[in-house]
């Protein structure tokens, strides 16, 4: 973390920006400052491929006038001349914007500095270049040794970073937040006869102790081996078991539908569904910006307001949207603390540590309950899901489920339908919950899905 004199300099710069903006006619202003450092190391077939380190910082000013116009300007220097220019640019941009009665600064009380366990000293201050290289070498060795069909470890990579954010406003907010992240991943090429498959796996966490490079290397090989030599099944309707990672990609898509900004812009097929059952009673979705060690956690959001935990869907029933101040004002409700904001943009709305809560079934239970179907480890083309209609057509990779056991690899197939129907067809939810980045999910069973193959 930055030392006290450096933080003081940032706070003084923020105060200067806001005071000067006020003297030049702004009705209100807020400031976002960000500083981050990063390191990355990777090996290609055991040989050094990349070894990079760097840092970045910037400060952004938003000015508001009496009718809700807002203007943004930012820079990468804290000297007086640069700060004066930022004020002038911000005010010029504000004057050119459209009025909006729902744009305003948040009122106290603001968020404090709750300890969410976001800072790991090992990552932020102690990790050496030799240790990063050793972690990559360890993953490379483990991947090669895990399965004789591995012919190449295309990448064994490590990255980490540390950063700080400061938010201040003329409404009285002044708060710091700091956090670290570390991540590692492995990609491999596996061959069996004429079949060749490339795949991988990675993980990331706030804390070094939560990462297991050995397990990550083995999982990369396991997942790639599972789909090696994949073939399509006949076209038909199948029960599907989505593993946690593929299920999390569906949860990620669903999260976008709960953003108030998308609801108001007509980009959510849930828009008219508040209080209605839209999915299986097995589905409960929660957004938690205060999750300890969560990758998207912070004591405050992009408008200085307190983060919180919000249940979006309970037992299949839509309960809440996610809000920043603007959209909360439009709907006449409190903000949920989900404002997202960079130094160069106005506040928007985003999810934070979105999760589909676990059920009671083990993965073995799910496979036995399905009996015959397809176990999916990868969904392709998620960006093509239509957020308005819910229609989708996705490529899949995975393995056969025959007699309640895994069979041969499956690929070259697509599943198609409508997400509204899929949500109602989720029959079983696993207990193997895990966060994949900022999205958490267990495995799921989805019944009777149309699949195109041969």
What does this protein look like?
With 454 residues, the protein is of the alpha+beta class. It has ten helices and 20 strands. The strands form four sheets. A six-stranded antiparallel sheet has the order 3-2-1-4-5-6. It has a six-stranded mixed sheet with strand order 10-9-8-13-19-18. It has a five-stranded mixed β-barrel with strand order 7-14-15-16-20. A hairpin with a 7-residue loop joins strand 11 (339-340) and strand 12 (348-349). Helix 4 packs parallel to helix 5.
What descriptors fit this protein?
six-stranded mixed beta sheet; 25% helix; 37% strand; PmbA/TldD fold; 454 residues; alpha+beta; 2 domains; 20 strands
Shape: globular
User: Can you summarize the main beta sheet?
Assistant: 6 strands, antiparallel
Q: Any idea what the CATH architecture of the largest domain is?
A: 2-Layer Sandwich
- Report the total helices: 10
Mean pLDDT: 96
Uncertain residue ranges: none
From the helix content, strand content and strand pairing, which structural class follows? alpha+beta
CATH H-level homologous superfamily name of the largest domain: PmbA/TldD superfamily
Q: How many β-strand runs?
A: 20
Summarize the helices and strands and which ones pair or pack.
Elements: H1 4-23, E1 28-44, E2 47-64, E3 70-75, H2 80-96, H3 121-126, H4 129-146, E4 150-169, E5 174-192, E6 195-205, H5 213-227, E7 236-242, H6 244-256, H7 260-264, E8 285-288, E9 309-314, E10 317-318, H8 325-331, E11 339-340, E12 348-349, E13 354-356, H9 363-370, E14 373-380, E15 391-402, E16 405-418, H10 419-424, E17 426-429, E18 434-436, E19 439-441, E20 444-452
Parallel strand pairs: 7-14, 13-19
Antiparallel strand pairs: 1-2, 1-4, 2-3, 4-5, 5-6, 7-20, 8-9, 8-13, 9-10, 11-12, 14-15, 15-16, 16-20, 17-20, 18-19
Helix pairs in contact: 1-2, 4-5
